[in-house]
Design a protein that fits this description.
Blueprint (H helix, E strand, L loop, with lengths): L1 H28 L70 E10 L3 E2 L3 E2 L2 E13 L4 E7 L2 E6 L1 H6 L3 E2 L2 E12 L4 E11 L13 E12 L4 E12 L7 E12 L4 E14 L26 E14 L2 E10 L9 E10 L1
Length: 344
Amino acid sequence: MTLTLYRCLRQVAFSVAVVAAASSSSASDGCFGLFDSHHCDSACDVACCDDGSCDGWGLSACGGDGLCCGLIKPSDRCFDDFISPMINFVHFEDPRTLTELRPIFVNHWVPDNLGNGVPAGGTIQLLAAQFRIALTDRLSIIAVKDGYIWDNTDQTLDTLLNDGWAGTSAGLKYNFLRNPQSGTLASAGFTYEFPGSTAALQNVGDGEFHFFVTGGQRFLDGNAHWMSAFGWRVPVDGDAQTESIHWSNHFDVRVTNSIYLLTEIAWWHWTDGAENGLDLGFAGQDLFNLFAADAKDLDLVTQNVGMKWKPNRGTEVGIAYEFPLTDFKDVIDSRLQTEVIFRY
């Protein structure tokens, strides 16, 4: 009896919350979407919230009151026409509030010579699984780095790097700007990376913080999108690891209802080297943060081209090929990345 009453009260509370959110949407638009509750928005640019079809794929508009007694919320429905970025996958965060699991596999080719003439070559493989959990309409937990690294490099680099667990990075993201009518989003957040395996060069220093802002914009009635993110990587132990900033950009075009073509560019700039490090002449791009004393003022720019298949709002499959645009390659000769996203 008590359990039945509790369920009824919960349903009533949920219904009231939905009605209140819908009735307040017009007022919140006047504040540029800074404070709205968006369980079911009205007048979205793409059908997503009030017509019972979400984004045209025939799924529930609101997705219920969440998982685990409502502690885990569903992903934001009014931006289902977007796809997630792929380049700089550890640090380029999607600005949307999402609940998802994202397995990623990377095959990374290493240049034959690194930095100050360190003989290298060969490949590195990574199998990882990111996840994001929406706690409210605005706040989410993000886990962006984990997994296992396989070393298939050559020469001197092979003596420094071996198989092992990647570091684990997790934190929070808050969506502070959201306008479903204009298709505009902006979020900010941070992560902390816990050290991983020493053998895989993931236990250098005492971890690092990453502070970021990220945004997105819809174009052409949801058939094109742009995302951009700026981040700052700050090591806990500056004697052992480098400090850097990055600026990452994503652009996609939807060529059919489910196929997207994309290209992305990431710029890395190292603002400080490891005070007690070695003169390596390379720092580790996104997956590593090495003990390079001479990393300051290094610049790396990479681009990728790829495509994604999104058969419904809960599934996203992508592939992208990345390559450097600058003479300085750091540790990347090229990279092939594949991923699958399962989204709630």
